[in-house]
UniProtKB/TrEMBL annotation:
PANTHER family: ACYL-COA DEHYDROGENASE, ACYL-COA DEHYDROGENASE FADE28. Residues 13-121 form the Acyl-CoA dehydrogenase/oxidase N-terminal domain. Its EC number is 1.-.-.-. This is Acyl-CoA dehydrogenase family protein. Residues 232-367 form the Acyl-CoA dehydrogenase/oxidase C-terminal domain. Its cofactor is FAD. Keywords: FAD, Flavoprotein, Oxidoreductase. Pfam families: Acyl-CoA_dh_1, Acyl-CoA_dh_N. It comes from Congregibacter variabilis. GO terms for molecular function: oxidoreductase activity. Belongs to the acyl-CoA dehydrogenase family.
Length: 372
């Protein structure tokens, strides 16, 4: 097999229009000042902004038209995620899109009502972890009375979600129990502090909770695999946008800050890393749009898996490097909370751990790309 593999890339007119509008909307509603306004608030976004996203149909991206979606396919979410990242907007949109994909691919007919609710604007999330370790064994279960028991940690956007898709063990196999967050107790959701204050997560306890839907069977394992790969792709897209914003902030500083009577941007030691950020970012953009060109509503095949893993490895490494250089270039000020470079290096540390870091994906890429 060639290491190059599938290199197809298509950017159709609908994606182009969506990217242009998403960039404009996110730049107008988001940005560094807007992000800082919500750093210490219970929610990391304005409810009005969420309502506008719903009105534009963004929660229905990737869902079929018969249940209220746009029918564009989940690949169309890549330009939106990139725009969210560039504006550092931490809305529950990505969690909602991924939850919809998990349920759609596990059992679209059984989950039709929940999916219709998501398309209409209900935020949603997936509760996966029982421990701090990614993808550990599930301890949540449905008891003999049909009630959900257990606890999940670090559930992204749990504070905003109407629907929570809980990964459980059912009849010795993976299953999904969907819970209406309104049925949870008053103290069921315990907010957690993330290194990236532009996002929110919480621990969620489930005690005698009646699921609105239980999905089991062979389709769940395939859906979970797709969910994790698509999650890696959308986080990669978000990270690519954040890298672009980080580069803008860094270059602007290099063009205005003087030392020894010279602009610091004139020094080769700062020029070269800035160019490296640009090339890493451009590579990441190629990877995410290559992956979006391949993604369909069908179960992801080998080429799609390779594309998603490549995108995640490249994009989060680019953001990590950009955030680190931004802090260093700002000198002592870069280590303070008031410096915007802090927002990017913190976003980079968070993004690295979502759906596997670069090393995780490269280990799996080796087996996919190298001939036996």
């Amino acid at each position: 097999m060639s290491v190059i593999g599938n290199t197809a890339m298509r950017f159709d007119e609908e994606q182009s229009m969506l990217l242009d509008y998403a960039r404009s909307f996110c730049a107008d509603r988001g940005g560094l000042n807007a992000a800082r306004e919500h750093l210490e608030s219970p929610l990391e976004y304005s409810p009005q902004v969420w309502e506008e996203m719903v009105a534009m149909g963004w929660t229905g991206i990737g869902l079929p038209e018969e249940i209220g979606g746009s029918g564009l396919g989940i690949g169309a979410a890549v330009p939106v995620a990139e725009s969210l990242g560039k504006a550092l907007m931490g809305t529950p949109l990505i969690s909602t899109l991924l939850t919809a994909q998990l349920l759609l691919r596990a059992d679209a007919s059984a989950a039709a009502d929940v999916l219709a609710g998501i398309a209409a604007g209900d935020a949603a999330c997936v509760a996966e972890l029982e421990s701090e370790d990614w993808n550990g064994p599930s301890g949540c279960f449905v008891d003999d009375a049909g009630l959900l028991q257990g606890r999940k940690q670090m559930v992204m956007d749990a504070q905003s979600a109407r629907w929570i898709a809980v990964l459980i063990t059912f009849e010795d196999a993976s299953a999904i129990a969907v819970v209406d967050a309104r049925d949870l107790g008053a103290q069921a959701i315990s907010p957690r502090v993330l290194i990236d204050n532009t996002h929110r997560a919480a621990d969620v306890g489930f005690v005698n909770v009646q699921p609105v839907l239980l999905v089991s069977g062979e389709s769940v394992s395939s859906a979970l695999r797709d969910y994790r790969l698509l999650g890696a792709l959308l986080v990669a897209a978000e990270s690519t946008g954040a890298t672009a914003a980080c580069l803008d902030v860094t270059v602007e500083y290099l063009k205005t800050r003087k030392q020894f009577g010279k602009l610091i941007g004139s020094y080769q030691a700062l020029k070269h890393p800035s160019v490296e950020i640009l090339t890493m970012m451009d590579s990441a953009r190629s990877f995410i749009y290559h992956a979006s060109s391949l993604i369909t509503d069908e179960a992801l095949a080998k080429d799609q898996e390779i594309a998603c893993r490549m995108a995640k490895a490249q994009a989060t490494e680019a953001l990590k490097f950009a955030g680190d250089r931004a802090v260093q270039f700002h000198g002592g000020m870069g280590f303070t909370w008031d410096c915007d470079a802090q927002l990017f290096i913190r976003r980079a540390q968070w993004a690295q751990q979502q759906f596997g870091d670069a090393q995780h994906h490269r280990q799996r890429l080796a087996a996919l790309l190298i001939d036996d």
